[in-house]
Amino acid sequence: MSGVLDIFTSFADWLVYGVIRLDAGTSLGQSAHFFVEDVSKILVLLVVLIYAIGLFRASLDTDRVRGFLQGKHRVWGYVLAACFGAVTPFCSCSSIPLFLAFTAAGVPLGITMAFLITSPMINEVAIVLLGGMLGWKFTMAYVAVGLLAGIVGGAFFDLIRAERHLTDMVTGATPEPTSDSGCGCGCKKTQRISWGDRHRFAWKEMVDILGSIWMWVLVGIGIGAVMHGYVPREWIADNLSADRWWTVPLAVVLGIPLYANASGVIPIAESLLGKGLPVGTTLALMMSVVGASLPEFLLLKKVMKPRLLVAFFLLLLVLFAGTGWLFNAISQAYPGAFG
């Protein structure tokens, strides 16, 4: 996976430093490199993933999915969805197509939200990097918090009956089968959909989704690029290291425009910890960067009504800030607990 992602880094190096000839040591050069690399990477990943998930959705046996989850206790559904999110290498944006697939299949919204919250925060690459750079105590704490955030978030959305606030885009999103495989005995069998129909559905979904959000993706990444190049890490560390209650939620808010995947933010977290940023504040910032982003919220506008979108944002703010306060308190009471 890292070898594939290196292609986008090399492309940004070639375009920004080779063709445009910006200096890699300047803020403008760093911002431009971040923008080119992330735009090319995110758009390519979105095209591939939305199309691939579209094929999956067109082939989905909704009765089997519903039957499996209906046979489980709802709490186990949250746990399974959070664990599934932990083993899928998706960022906050590329988790959206699979979220749509689950919702269209009739999976309870709380379970799909458990997946959506956990998926971008945890993956096997992030675990390996965290263990090597920040230690296994910190890694285990991060994984546990990520799973717990998904489970708690899923339960919360079921508690408030959040499915009432989904848009019409979710309903009827799975294509109707075009061939009848009924046996004539009066029972209903799962109908087969041709590969041509699956391709047309996946292609249309990819074109429709990208056509409606590409501009907002550019805006979100552009904001992140400006902050990446022009806001020094020293400033972040100096202003967020003070022992004041508001520094943790401030770190969460600052992390949202800094769109990145877990692998990309880990080296930054290592640097910030080395400059004195408290462990809880660092953890809250990491979770905010990888678990929430402007492009993600702009994508979710297509499937969530404003009230539900605000509730999702506030839930993430509470979960991430609460995690930061808790870990800061533990680290102050037990120095070296996460070393």
Shape: globular
Distance between the termini: 29 Å
Helix content: over 70%
Give the strand content: under 5%
Please tally the helical runs, counting DSSP H or I stretches of 4 or more residues: 15
SSE blueprint:
Blueprint: H1 2-19, H2 27-59, H3 62-70, H4 74-86, H5 96-104, H6 109-118, H7 124-134, H8 136-159, H9 195-230, H10 233-240, H11 247-255, H12 262-274, H13 279-291, H14 294-300, H15 306-333
Task: Describe what you observe in this structure.
The chain has 339 residues and is mainly alpha-helical. The chain has 15 helices and no strands. The chain has one domain (8-176, 194-333). Residues 174-190 have low confidence and may be disordered.
Q: Descriptors for this entry?
A:
15 helices, 339 residues, mainly alpha
In short, what is this structure?
The protein is mainly alpha-helical and 339 residues long. Helices cover 71% and strands 0% of the residues. It has 15 helices and no strands.
